[in-house]
Amino acid sequence: MGKKRRPKYIFVVGGVLSGVGKGVTSASLGAIFRSKHFKVTALKADPYINVDAGTMNPTEHGEVFVTDDGDETDQDMGNYERFLDVDLTRTNYMTTGRIYQTVIDNERSMKYKGRCVEVVPHIPEEILRRIKEAQKVHEADITIIEIGGTVGEYQNILFLEAVREMKLKYPDDIALVLVSYLPVPSHIGEMKTKPTQNAQRSLNSVGLHADLIVARGPMELDMIRRQKLSLLCGIHKEYSISAPDVESIYEIPLKMEDQDIGNKLLKILHLPGRRSFLKQWDAFVHQIKHTKREVRIGVVGKYFGTGDFTLADSYISVIEAIRHASWYHSAKPVLDWIDSEDFEQNPQRLKTLNAYHGVIVPGGFGTRGVEGIIRAIQFVREQKIPYLGLCYGMQLATVEFARHVLGIEEANTVEMDPASREPIIHVNPFQEKNIRENRYGATMRLGAYTAALKKGSVVCKAYGKPAISERHRHRYEFNNAYRKRIDDAGLRVVGVNPESDLVEIVELDGHPFFVGTQFHPEFHSRPMRPHPLFREFIRAALKRTVL
Ligand code: GLN
Q: Is the pTM of this model over 0.90?
């Protein structure tokens, strides 16, 4: 794109139901425009009063996705990064709370020069400032902005007002996409467009009109439905895009581009059409569909009373990282959520872990189920089942090793026992103050930190380089007072942050694969570029024979 071209913006809003795939649709649009050689960035506007997602319960709100610059954001940001293959920053995320906070801070520092500060225009003004800032920082030709929630609720009304004002200012540079749900009631057996018509009407009532509708639903749009959407929602008949449920989300860019969605949006944005180059996606989806053997991964945590559905949302980046790595090895991943509390009550059930090719303990917080996790880690260590511990999974692997190999019976993390006499995982003085003063928002060790890797270690070979940078989100740390003893006994410290001397990675000698990371490698995994540690974990898992 020539330098003088005006930046273009695509807003994505949801209709009818939440959770129908606005995030993946936005991410897929990003992938499509990237394949057309545009520079693309994507933003999420979350209607919550929370300043960031760090204080939200992941079983309610989904995973907290951490950016390199340490922002605690919405899980959709992970989809953008995976589909666009870019690293986003805090400029790509905003919440209602964050916007109000800036406006109030501005007011306190007299930035409004004595004028009355009002919801309109000052809130939409701040929303637009942030959108433009992201466009600038990422030098984007096309900026995709997903507005959380569904049209018609109170929560996102100011974001919609911002779109209206932007459209007034730049009528040729804005496209509005409505991702809507078309239900098929079982007693009727046909797809219904009425709720989508109502969603368009809700948009109309705030001065907006969707240009294009992505019609989610259990089946394809037929001709009649297309005509209805066109007539009753007032859109060009070509501008309804069929988006039925698919097996893998990675098919979505292909399915949408089959209907030429990219060029249709370019037309709305007053840009000439361009060819898309989605060959790699094609090959990737082909690879997914032609997996040869299953790789069974047990994910152990405190899952009692949490359904599979919420778990899938809370650990989406871990799941995706397992998938990317499995597909890389032409294997089909099968995941089981294993409730660690079960092992506390019924230790004989630990044997069931033998059925897995590999076991992961993902990140987590709190005390529930922790003893069960420690037992599970002991079992996989002793039975030589490939193990990957992510954050809490690294900390608890260290505690387990200290207890059962070094014989430090009272070894613990102070998260479990603040008065522990053997604090293998402890809290640094700075964090102690945060905890004492209830300062929980954005006070963890967050974002990218580097680690120097030990030459010749499993992880150094996996990464293929001696220095790495990975994303963090934790409050507690490996206690360096125990480092030498643990390392000497065989749980090697193979990754250390050079500035702080904090332990970043441990790996066990003489085990097919036993690695724990203080960081979250899952955030860096990309569909066509699996994370090296997940890749090697799955490689080891596939070597294991299970009955
Ligand atoms: N609860 C641990 C800590 O705060 C681990 C955090 C995590 O797993 N993300 O340090």
A: yes
